[in-house]
Amino acid sequence: IAGITQAPTSQILAAGRRMTLRCTQDMRHNAMYWYRQDLGLGLRLIHYSNTAGTTGKGEVPDGYSVSRANTDDFPLTLASAVPSQTSVYFCASSEGDGTQETQYFGPGTRLLVL
Amino acid sequence: GQNIDQPTEMTATEGAIVQINCTYQTSGFNGLFWYQQHAGEAPTFLSYNVLDGLEEKGRFSSFLSRSKGYSYLLLKELQMKDSASYLCAATDSNYQLIWGAGTKLIIKP
Q1: Low-confidence residues of chain A, pLDDT below 50?
Q2: Which of B41, B50, B99 minimises the CB distance to A43?
Q3: Is A85 helix (H, G, I), strand (E, B) or coil?
Q4: How far apart are CA A76 and CA A22, in angstroms?
Q5: Could you report the per-residue pLDDT of A5-35, keeping only the tens digit for each?
Q6: C-alpha span between B109 and B88 (Å, rounded)
Q7: In B, residues 26-55, which contact A (CB 8 Å cutoff)?
Q8: What angle do CA B22, B23, B29 make, to 5 degrees?
Q9: Would you tell me how many other CB atoms lie within 10 Å of the CB of residue B30?
């Protein structure tokens, strides 16, 4: 593994189903982030984690949950998917040392909720 | 409130120079990022400005004016592969990134 990986690459999901998007990084970064990107809108932060064991809410957290059991993994769960959650989801990480926080992105997961 | 503004789309000619502007308003400010995003791909880091002035990196330069809440990305000797979206993002007082919607740059031969 090099950098950040996300799975699945894409998914079609029926409304009401539960879905977990996976994210793994091998850079030993402290901070990790989940964004959604919709046409015409900037990246919007869903949840973040400054270090293993802690999480925080971003701009658009409703309908999503995260966990950070260890440094490498940061899964995002949709408890009961709705069509408005159709989007491209990007996971990112940064060193999290409280200075310049350059974020490095995974390849994204394209989710279609029907 | 927090806001980032940048043009939605710009068109330029191969070999020319283009300047993409970004204005920002954030609660606290620590620095400004520019990212490049090709269609269907993830954003990749281009530059980070903390101090006022111009920083040059090959064909790409980025400028920051903290007093004016203004930045621009300058791309020289445009190549077809520069066709992409360019995302401006400002860090707030908690080092969270506030993202603009991106500027789609179209390069014509």
Answers
A1: none
A2: B99
A3: helix
A4: 7
A5: 999 999 999 999 999 999 999 999 999 999 9
A6: 26
A7: 31, 33, 41-45, 48, 50
A8: 115
A9: 18
